Amino acid sequence: MSLHTITDSNHGELKVTVVSQVGQHVLKELLASSHYSKVGEYGRRLTDVATLGAGRKSWSRRLLILTTGSAEAFEKIDRTYVVNSAREARVEGLAQRVVYCSSIGANAESSFLYPRSKGMTENELSNMGYSDSIIFRPAALAGTNRPDKRLGETIGTAVSGFLSHFTSAIEIKVATLGKSMAIAGWYGSEQLPAAAKAQKAGKEPSTFTLINNSGALALANTPWE
Questions:
Q1: pTM of the model
Q2: Nearest to 98 by CA among 30, 23, 184
Q3: Does the bond joining 205 to the residue before it have cis omega, within 30 degrees of 0?
Q4: With bands split at pLDDT 50, 70 and 90, how would you rate the model's confidence at 82?
């Protein structure tokens, strides 16, 4: 499942995270941060408490049982549940921010399922009335902890890991991306540091702030505590 976080303009009243490989790291950043007082976790896999250090604040948890298989099932998990949860969290008249983890190549007009689903999700989230929408488009994700290792993914990770020594556009560790998303959620579009290389994307009135792979890498090095 993809991930999005939602917070109000007072920073700390509410934080919602739909957990994925990246989302687990966002959760850790939020629980360790002094900026947020309330954190909620929603996902088909909930974070193991044993993996979190001592002294963490408490958080609410909800388990969603989701399965994939067909293209229809994939879109339901990747897009429908993300969009619906963002819609439920939206409060009319309240300034709120949404931060979403999309993917490089996201395009609602693509003939391929994965980039099309990501692009359609971007469009729906940015058209939902949030006062600030920030979308990350990372490249290959490294450091994932999937129970089912696939040969193709293993080879791809090795190749992208090698190429990442020469360019910042190829790969990002999920822990790094999670930290960047937490930082972006705190700063908001208007206060993002130049290192994030943020751009305006989308079409009026449904525009959003876009951060690519190299921007996410740089943003993770920004102090925010």
A1: 0.81
A2: 184
A3: yes
A4: confident
